[in-house]
Amino acid sequence: MEERIDFIEELLQQAEQADEARKIEMHTLRADQILAAIAKLEESMYDVNQLCDNELKLIEEYRSSELARLDKQRSWFVFNLDGFMRSTGEKTLRLPHGILKLRKGRDKVAITALDQFLAVGSKLGLVRTVPEEIAPDLQAIVNHIRNTKEIPAGVEFISGDTKFSYTTTSKEKSDERE
User: Fold this and answer.
1) Residues paired with 104 in a beta bridge
2) Contact 150, 94 (CB under 8 A)
3) From CA 146, how far away is CA 153, in angstroms rounded?
4) Smallest Cα–Cα separation from 140: which of 94, 107, 172?
5) Distance (Å, rounded) from C-alpha 135 to C-alpha 138?
6) Are 25 and 34 in contact (CB under 8 A)?
7) CB-based contacts of 140: which residues, under 8 Å, 6+ apart?
8) What is the 8-class DSSP label of residue 160?
């Protein structure tokens, strides 16, 4: 066992001696030469970074222009599909490569004259009272207009738009877009 410990110590001493041999003999001239070498390496590193930055900028410009070009083509196809879908009278069309849909959006109201509205809205139950605050209940107003077809004073009715959407089927994923 003693023989093994001596062998390990001998290996460690040899490793230390090898490290010492690899050290650069230092003096002022050698230190200055090393600084010049470091400066050259840093300059090369800067050049590599500049080249990479320029390449990344070029790639980003390419990505932008290609995506814009492809999106323009996609938008043209979607525009044509929207027109086609509206001409069919159908709400949903299932096709081998996807689904076309027309869906009516939600109706909305905008209070254009709060004072006028509050005069009639309170009587019709279209106002909710929060402690210390009286505010129009927009959903109740929409429901009232749907049920009675009357638009209270001071209210603008904004009918929901019919929106076109499509879903494509592909091997990897399914996209739904409007």
Assistant:
1) 162
2) no
3) 15
4) 107
5) 9
6) no
7) 125, 126, 128
8) P
Residue 130: HSE in the Cβ half-sphere, 13 Å Cα cutoff: 4
Share of the chain above pLDDT 70, in %: 89
Cβ atoms of 126 and 155 within 8 Å: the answer is: no
**What's the sign of the alpha-carbon dihedral 93, 94, 96, 97?**
positive
Question: Which token pair is 85?
Answer: 């879908």
8-state DSSP, 25: P
Q: pLDDT for 73-125, tens place per residue?
A: 999 999 999 999 999 989 999 999 999 999 888 888 888 888 888 888 888 88
What is the rounded distance in angstroms from the CA atom of residue 167 to the CA atom of residue 172? 13
Structure-token pair, residue 57 = 């900028």
| CA distances for 178 relative to 67, 81, 87, 162, angstroms | 18, 11, 18, 11
Indicate the pTM of the whole model. 0.52
Residue 176 has, within 13 A of its CA and on its CB side, a CA count of 7
* DSSP secondary structure, 130-141, as one string: ETTEEEE-HHHH
